[in-house]
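Need the bound structure for uridine-5'-diphosphate, inputs here:
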Amino acid sequence: IKVLCVAGARPNFPKIAPLMKVLGETEGFEVHLVHTGQHYDDALSRVFFEDLKIPKPDLDLEVGSASHALQTAEVMRRFEPVLEQEQPQAVVVVGDVNSTIACALVVSKFPLKQPFMWRGKPRHRPVMIHVEAGLRSFDEEMPEEINRRLTDTISDLLFVTEMDAVTNLRNEGVAEERIHFVGNVMIDTLLAARDKAMQSGILEELELEKDKYALLTLHRPSNVDDSTVLGKILGALDEIAAERPIVFPVHPRTKPRIADAGVALSPERWKLIDPVGYLDFLRLMSSAHLVITDSGGIQEETTVLGVPCMTLRENTERPVTLSEGTNRLVGIDPDAIRASWKAISQDPPVGRVPRYWDGQAAKRIVAVLAREFGVQ
Ligand code: UDP
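Answer from helper R.:
Posting the output first, comments after.
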């Protein structure tokens, strides 16, 4: 069975890595990797291939940045000839970026030259597989929410990280045979990389001490695109920085907007750095007193690490990190940020690791695929 795996942006790489590995080791599957090039700079892409030992992509579509419509269209335009050439029986997409929906949409209408037998019937299109399905923020202002919903609708097999996502899919009327609760491939990567990450020299390089700093990431358009909003957030965080220095690996989307935000981020309180590689970031998260973020994946990673996380958003598509983990949904109101910081400092949240976030999710997925495709 020929499987094409698709990755395009930073959060995709830790999800695709364990799938590539396990599929590559399982007899009966031939696996290829397509990089759409949605993220292309070294800090958001190449370093992940090195840190996570992801094989070099078989194909790089090099789409780069553009508006949503242009980027989605460009991925579609460049991905269709790949299917034409490769004729895969299955395509795996992960997460919720534009490449995810773009490739899923192409696959779902792509006629194979040679139909194959699937579930007892001739199948004329590749089987479409979505890993990290069913997550919903119920916030349609978020481009990722549109990508998630649409990708799930047109995927045949939906692999799910948490029970809330199973409930969402059931509520949308998705047939049970499409839903598989298998756990979290991103956590497979975290657990596999943990020991190696502890050897990273990033704390020493930045002159940081364990537990003595907070770590910040910000890149959601709703938080960073408007300089007044960004200024309000950074202003509130500057008060925290007076007590604990804040390490801030600045996303390329956010970088050009910081100057306009009108908050002086003094070097005594703030360490502004470029985005760091996966292993360095894992070390930074593991040793932080607190992580402050608007990222999706980081809410999950901090839950597994047992590190308190303040999420600067009004909603989360990953509610298990609140109900079981160490995540706190704070929003961006300065009073709420202050109050949450105080509460977390006095009484740090203690959580537990959600079910199946145990390093075996990719194996569970490949076991399901082996069954579905009759691979022994
Ligand atoms: N990450 C990283 N270096 C950084 C910031 C994040 O390696 O400087 C990793 C992080 O550990 C997680 C992934 O990037 O695995 C999350 O990506 P991002 O926050 O961009 O995307 P989201 O999860 O919000 O879609």
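Comments: The chain has two domains: 2-184+357-372, 195-346. Residues 10-11, 14, 217, 219, 249, 275-276, 278, 281, 295-298, 301 surround uridine-5'-diphosphate (CB under 6 Å).
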